[in-house]
Amino acid sequence: MAELNIEKGSSRKSAYDLRDPNAHAVERHTLAVVVDNEAGVLARVIGLFSGRGYNIESLTVAEIDHNGHTSRMTIVTTGTPAIIDQIKAQLGRIVPVHEVHDLTVEGASVERELALFKVSGKGNDRVEALRLADIFRASVVDSTLHNFTFEITGSPEKIDAFAELMRPLGLSEMARTGVAALSRG
Amino acid sequence: MTQPMTGAQMVVQALKDQGVDVVFGYPGGAVLPIYDEIFQQNDIRHILVRHEQAAVHAAEGYARSTGKVGCALVTSGPGATNAVTGLTDALMDSIPIVVLSGQVPTFMIGNDAFQEADTVGITRPCTKHNWLVKDTAALPGILHEAFHVARSGRPGPVLVDIPKDVQFASAIYTPREAARTDRYNPRVKGDIEQIRRLARAMTEARRPIIYSGGGVINSGPRASQLLRELARETGFPLTSTLMGLGAYPASGDAWLGMLGMHGTYEANLAMHGCDLMINIGARFDDRITGRVQDFSPQSVKAHIDIDPSSINKVIHVEIPIIGDVANVLEDLLAVWRAEEGSRTQREAVKGWWAQIEEWREVRCLDYDTSPRVIKPQHAVARLEALTKGHDRYICTEVGQHQMWAAQYLGFEDPNRWMTSGGLGTMGYGQPAAMGVQVAHPDALVINVAGEASWLMNMQEMGTMVQYRLPVKQFILNNERLGMVRQWQELLHGERYSQSWSEALPDFVKLAEAFGAKGIKCSDPADLDDAIREMIDHDGPVIFDCLVEKHENCFPMIPSGEPHNKMLLANAETQGQITAPGAVLV
Ligand SMILES: Cc1cc2nc3c(=O)[nH]c(=O)nc-3n(C[C@H](O)[C@H](O)[C@H](O)COP(=O)(O)OP(=O)(O)OC[C@H]3O[C@@H](n4cnc5c(N)ncnc54)[C@H](O)[C@@H]3O)c2cc1C
Ligand SMILES: Cc1ncc(C[n+]2csc(CCOP(=O)(O)OP(=O)(O)O)c2C)c(N)n1
């Protein structure tokens, strides 16, 4: 958890800082939001975050019920506890939003992300990349004489760790899906 | 009934089914089919404004003064973009309106077609919800849902964007009863446990205050009735925000006057020193709280609000109650009446009232009159005296005159006061007054204005003359952007940058040019007769009241200061606002 970076006494400098006089610690929360799958719904949610100055670390969305026309968004956001509460209340005001769940406080949950990595290495680096991929249970989904494309699923932290290891071995491109999450049990 | 209808016919039918009797609008290519249907019927009256912004403000005035949903109709592109200020205004002040806009045909959307604008994109952040209708069969359901969303929960503006081909095509109409409204149903009933906690806190409080707001008006006349009962039965003092004026009568025993930046000394000090604050339908706006860290430091706070996002947004409260004001007050009164302590509470708060009476003796709204020049406060006080007892509705523009109107007019009933609070939109008052007069043709409707604000929508004089809307424009003409000038005096070393009104029109001649009556008054001795002449005239009037040019509006809590740091009239004001406060607005 990072500390909010507001210097002492700065809270009188702008109306924005007035919101957060005590500089509470910033928390990271994963929200699951069930919405009607209709035109503009993603824009509404994103517009809420940008318009009110909230953070989005990751956002994924896809239809989950074709007949019921509902989609599920998984949003990873950061903010003080008060801001997180505001975000949930503001999301709840959007007409096509049906449910807002804070997976971070509603008990245990699983978070997964999928990523594709292109690694272009030579000689020993190629071997090392394959060996590490095996340890991380990443699979090779494409290979040429010059590079491998790995697919890896896991927590965002696991993917970060894999990326760090691949970097010196010739990591040239990476695509990540963002987090999908469900509560346990 | 199962005959197909065109989209344009559906629009008119849905408006009728929703009880709309008047639409404020302006035609253009993308709404011609709808205008064609309007032409062929007599149930819905159309008022042709002179600018789409005015159509939306008129719908707001209509809505606020009747408690019904207001309706406006505009064309695509510039018609829709002109509506944006009105939509934002209605969003900030929780006013239920439905705006219908025309759009280029569906097959041309995205081509930069003539008068195409991304209306749903532009208006997404300034509406409660909006819809782009792509299929005529979906149109009636969307229209019914639009009215439902506008009026339910925390009211607000919605927009339905209707492409021209959707207006021409035919489908089967969905009647109001069959339309889907289930996906938006905010909760109205408060949690009884929290209500019990509040009732208990009320029996223990020694320095309580009721802080009521626009939500009481939004909730309807029953809420105002219950608020009065609550004040009477508890004996607690009561103050209100700008938006809530009239919910509790200004002549009532509990009344402390408005609170906030330009509120009364007694109301603000009572808010600062209370031990229990009961917020009923107000939103802790920054005009109220001042510096939040110092806001009412010793009190337990309860907050009744229908919008969960209003609760704990600015001020942390100990007793949150999510629900509709009327609904919650009903339960609260029932619980309170059963509480043991309720019978002795009136006695227990006597000491608090004695303290409040002491604050009252400061007489913070006193002002010096002058035999030579009309003081703006005096003009409003005379307007109050001479219009009291009339079936009266007041609108305002934005600035000093707005605050003086709030301070020196007394409101006895809800829905009688229309002002732009949250957005502070200059140019709001004149069209809003027009909408009020359309809804109440026989009432005395007055727009208390500053000359600068008034000019922003002055074209609407034409509308008022055309439809014989006898609105009185009471202009406090200080030849200054007075509120801006006041801030420059207090914050920017009296450097009056661009804050005067140069090359003003001759308002009497202007009135006459429109076919209205003009009255000019500059001598305090003539004021009463001139106001009477205005009231008695059966038609629209522009009253040019020349007032003191450099009068300041007091009391004033400087930005960034707590409630107990208030400036009163005649106070030494130089250097009172600190540099950090100057950053705030
Ligand atoms: C130049 C200028 C100066 C100003 N100075 C002052 C000042 O000195 N004092 C002042 O008070 N204001 C002042 N204002 C106005 C101020 O900016 C705000 O608009 C106002 O204070 C907000 O009023 P409110 O809190 O009653 O909220 P509103 O904006 O009326 O909001 C209503 C609240 O009630 C809730 N609500 C709605 N319907 C219901 C329901 N059915 N049941 C329960 N809750 C409901 C809403 O969710 C919302 O939280 C000034 C404005 C201008 C332009
Ligand atoms: C559309 C718009 N533009 C600018 C402002 C900023 N503003 C607030 S009050 C004011 C001056 C209003 O002058 P006037 O209407 O003459 O009223 P007075 O304050 O003199 O009574 C201005 C420019 C605003 N509120 N709205």
TrEMBL record, chain A:
Gene3D superfamilies: 3.30.70.260, ACT-like. Chain A, domain 2. GO terms for biological process: isoleucine biosynthetic process; L-valine biosynthetic process. One of its GO terms (cellular component) is cytosol. Its EC number is 2.2.1.6. Residues 30-105 form the ACT domain. Pfam families: ACT_AHAS_ss (PF22629), ALS_ss_C (PF10369). One of its GO terms (molecular function) is acetolactate synthase regulator activity. It comes from the Bacteria. Keywords: Amino-acid biosynthesis, Branched-chain amino acid biosynthesis, Transferase. It catalyses: 2 pyruvate + H(+) = (2S)-2-acetolactate + CO2. Pathway: Amino-acid biosynthesis; L-isoleucine biosynthesis; L-isoleucine from 2-oxobutanoate: step 1/4; Amino-acid biosynthesis; L-valine biosynthesis; L-valine from pyruvate: step 1/4. Catalyzes the conversion of 2 pyruvate molecules into acetolactate in the first common step of the biosynthetic pathway of the branched-amino acids such as leucine, isoleucine, and valine. PANTHER family: ACETOLACTATE SYNTHASE SMALL SUBUNIT, ACETOLACTATE SYNTHASE SMALL SUBUNIT 1, CHLOROPLASTIC. Dimer of large and small chains. Belongs to the acetolactate synthase small subunit family. This is Acetolactate synthase small subunit. It comes from Palleronia sediminis. The lineage of its organism: Bacteria, Pseudomonadati, Pseudomonadota, Alphaproteobacteria, Rhodobacterales.
UniProtKB/TrEMBL annotation, chain B:
One of its GO terms (molecular function) is acetolactate synthase activity. Its EC number is 2.2.1.6. GO terms for cellular component: acetolactate synthase complex. Binds 1 Mg(2+) ion per subunit. Binds 1 thiamine pyrophosphate per subunit. One of its GO terms (biological process) is isoleucine biosynthetic process. Its cofactor is Mg(2+); thiamine diphosphate. Residues 195-332 form the Thiamine pyrophosphate enzyme central domain. Gene3D superfamilies: 3.40.50.970, TPP-binding domain. Pathway: Amino-acid biosynthesis; L-valine biosynthesis; L-valine from pyruvate: step 1/4; Amino-acid biosynthesis; L-isoleucine biosynthesis; L-isoleucine from 2-oxobutanoate: step 1/4. Residues 398-545 form the Thiamine pyrophosphate enzyme TPP-binding domain. Residues 5-120 form the Thiamine pyrophosphate enzyme N-terminal TPP-binding domain. It holds the Pfam family TPP_enzyme_M. It catalyses: 2 pyruvate + H(+) = (2S)-2-acetolactate + CO2. Keywords: Amino-acid biosynthesis, Branched-chain amino acid biosynthesis, Magnesium, Metal-binding, Thiamine pyrophosphate, Transferase. Belongs to the TPP enzyme family. This is Acetolactate synthase. It comes from Palleronia sediminis.
